[in-house]
Amino acid sequence: MGEQIAETRMRRPVITARAAATFDPVGRSVASARAFVRDTLQGWGLTEVVDDAVVLTSELVTNAVVHAGTAADVVCLRTDTGVRIEVGDRYPEREVPLQSAGVQFGSPDREGGRGLLLCAALASRWGVEYTATHKQVWFQLDLPDRPAGTRSAGPALPIEALPVADARVRVAVIQIDRLGSISSWNEDAQELFGFSPEQAIGEQLTDFAAWPHTPGTSTGIVDALQLSRWEGSYGIRDAAGRVIPVYASHLRVRDAQGEPSTVCLVVRENERAVLQSPMRVPSSDRQGSSERGTSADAFEVFIGSPAPDDLDGLLQRTVERARDMLDGDSAYLLLATDDETELEVRASTGLPSARQRFARVPVEAGSGRYGSARMPAVHEDLSAVPGAVPLLSNTGMRSVVTVPLKVEGRLTGSLGVAAEGPGRYSNEEALRLQFAADRIALAVESARLTELERLRRGSLSFLVEASDLLAGTLDRDQTLALMAQMTVPTLATWCAVYTIADQAAEPELSYVLHEDEDRIDGLKALLSKVEPPEPVTTPGAQVWTAPSEAAHAAALRTSLRSLGLGDSVRPATGPGTSLATAAAVGGETVVLPLVARNRVIGMLTLGKPTDEHFRQEILELAEDLSRRAALALDNARLYSERTAISQSLQRSLLPPELPEVPGVEVEVIYRAAGEGNEVGGDFYDLFPIRDGAYGFAIGDVCGTGPEAAAVTGLARHALRLLAREGFSGPAVLERLNAAILDEGARSRFLTLLYGELWPQPDGSAVLKVVCAGHPLPLRLRQDGTVEAAAEPQPLLGVMDDLELYEQTVTLAPGDVLLCVTDGVTERREGTRMLGDDGLIDVLTTCTGLTAGAVASRVLRAVERFAAEPASDDMAILAMRVPEPQLEPQNS
């Protein structure tokens, strides 16, 4: 025995696959690491542990790249028992919290140690390893046992006990290739769903399948097609657009060339017995049962063996057995919420289950014997007490017996059996049903808790991804689209987002999405005619009945109008559209307030199709999402307002348009760096001073933001005012320098090139310029030579006493004067800079070009100098004296 234990301890898991990646110490690496782990595990077919692995990896990589500030090395190892993931960083000196009697982890919300706390909670095994240069945290997730390919044989049954099927049972055989496209579609598939082989072959199965979307509780269709074997229920849309519930068995095979494909056998849901293959009990268990005889487990006696391994299957088996046990016509089972105030319908038979599923009823309906679900109750005739059991209203059921499901004295659910005739049940039947409920209560609660745990883990992964997406944009429209796309179809069938501009404004319908794109226009038209929901700050989901009532009323009116058409053909846009919209909106609709900074900024509306309800867990998840979405939407609003203000202010600092200067071509190009969230910086101006004289300026204020914008506005308006008062260029700049210094702490340095331009009758132009600390203007002559057209002088905003002088430049016909800001000359790529020499080289190639062509060529040269976008504003002012046009000679 000791040797066997030692051998077991020494055995290490066999590694069958490995994937590794390194992520830089930046925030976006966390999302990249999550995507890497998710894609790797899904590619290996380990979908059962993907959510836990993603959550743990997210926390550990965050510790490495954000808190430790180092690169993160992520390694995924597939073993014969599960998956091991290792996350390493290059900061081994960090303190590692230890779980022991004397050391506490602290709050889970604290940044340090949360990743290890999650490892302790979710992983099968985990640990921390150190080297001289690295620290590595690893965790192991074991795979659950997945029996596949099992077989079973049932007992001989009397004919009346056999499952009911159509006279001609049709089994659709559909083959799917490795890309998910349909490659084979048999005759029974055409009969069941209305599509011919020509219409189906080549299409994706996902285009036909209506797969259940409950986060964390089910395998996706793409994942199911990758499994070696899969069996279960879903829906397929037929040619008329209806969803037909089906039961399917998938088997993954490969041909002689090694190409994989999936063979799907599909029947109608009510004929599932044709394909269903329940798991066989191990021989040891069967022997144990035969030896125990009458002492067999009470739960197995009632449920049957083997018991379903999922909550929905267990609940459905329970109501079917309860109905059969009391020879009833219907049965239902409700599960209690955590606070035991409400019961949620989770399974039924003999009732319109789609209408009732996830509907909620209060535990305490009133006083008296029948007023609580905590006690057994018998109703001999429901017609005598209408509304006593709301679940059975308008179902034809007359008598009913209900019993509670309790675990350790706590209410966990309620089980009921009903019959169409009155007086069918007495206290004796209530005792029998209570005895059965006591047998299965613990198993049902255990399965419910397991489902809640899976849902919680899936919800946590969902919220991590949602927060990452919402934090990645500051665009209002994109934020609205993300909110809707994250909820549909994961949480709801359709979604509408209302926004409120201010406290006095009415809610505005801003975005609508439905899982079926053909329904979006009809849904939007319907909601636009309905009064928006009342904005309330109360947290939680509030039921909103207006959309379903309006949809049903519109559908009814359309149907009544259609009755007058007789046998004529209905128009394509007639009743079908309204009826389809009513079906899409006819289920439960809830509204969640979007509250940010103690103000309601909108409402998130979620809806289900006809007769469907929301699960409480889904509503709680939606509430968490709405809080994150509200903050993201408000941040986007604030950013948009700030950007609009900045852009408006920036436009006010630049001249609205340039005047026409006789005899001189003028071209200006202005490029603001960044995303328009800062103002100030570079500016330019060209304005008439008096007849025949024009002033021009190009400048650069030190810094950006409001202070720089104040100096920019001061400079542009002061230049115009002083120049038109008749002051010379040096006098204008000296007075501007004094005005800047008067701003005190708000003042900024300013480099400025200012000049006055006089077009001459002979076709030339005379300029008087003052260059105060600005890049020197360049003059291009007709022969291609380039020279500086001014000398450097002190910049403005530094010294009180400036002695500036102006220099006169004459531009001959064909000459160009180029003025730029330092965003042009200081264009960089690594250690390279364009500089004055690079600008001169570009300008020498512009001989004979117009002013507009010169400015454009300089801009292209700046943009092509480096691959990265420019990080500084730049302004380009080009002035050219055109050559005289030759008079055509008369022959």
Q: What does the overall shape look like? A: elongated
Can you tell me the CATH class of the largest domain?
Answer: Alpha Beta
Q: DSSP helix count?
A: 22
Cross-sheet strand order for the largest sheet: 7-6-11-10-9-8
List segments where confidence is low: pLDDT < 50 over at least 5 consecutive residues. 5-9, 94-112, 147-153, 213-218, 279-297, 366-370, 565-577
Structural class: alpha+beta
Q: Fill in the CATH topology of the largest domain.
A: Phosphatase 2c, domain 1
Radius of gyration: 38 Å
CATH architecture descriptor name of the largest domain: 4-Layer Sandwich
Mean pLDDT: 79
What is the number of beta strands? 34
The CA-CA distance between the termini, in Å, is: 123 Å
Characterization of the model:
This protein is α+β, with helices and mostly antiparallel strands. It folds into 5 domains: 15-94 and 115-142, Heat Shock Protein 90, CATH 3.30.565.10; 172-274, PAS domain (Beta-Lactamase, 2-Layer Sandwich), CATH 3.30.450; 299-453, GAF domain (Beta-Lactamase, 2-Layer Sandwich), CATH 3.30.450.40; 473-561 and 576-644, Beta-Lactamase, CATH 3.30.450.40; 654-881, Phosphatase 2c, domain 1, CATH 3.60.40.10. Helix content is 33%, strand content 25%. The strands form 7 sheets. The protein has a 6-stranded antiparallel beta sheet. Strands 14-13-12-17-16-15 form a 6-stranded antiparallel beta sheet. Strands 1-2-3-5-4 form a 5-stranded antiparallel beta sheet, covered by helices on one side. Helix 3 runs antiparallel to helix 4 (114-122), helix 10 runs antiparallel to helix 12 and helix 18 (706-724) runs antiparallel to helix 19 (729-742). The longest helix has 45 residues, at 427-471. It is elongated, with a radius of gyration of 38 Å. Residues 5-9, 94-112, 147-153, 213-218, 279-297, 366-370 and 565-577 have low confidence and may be disordered. This is PAS domain S-box-containing protein. It comes from Streptomyces zagrosensis. Residues 173-205 form the PAS domain. One of its GO terms (molecular function) is phosphatase activity. Keywords: Hydrolase.
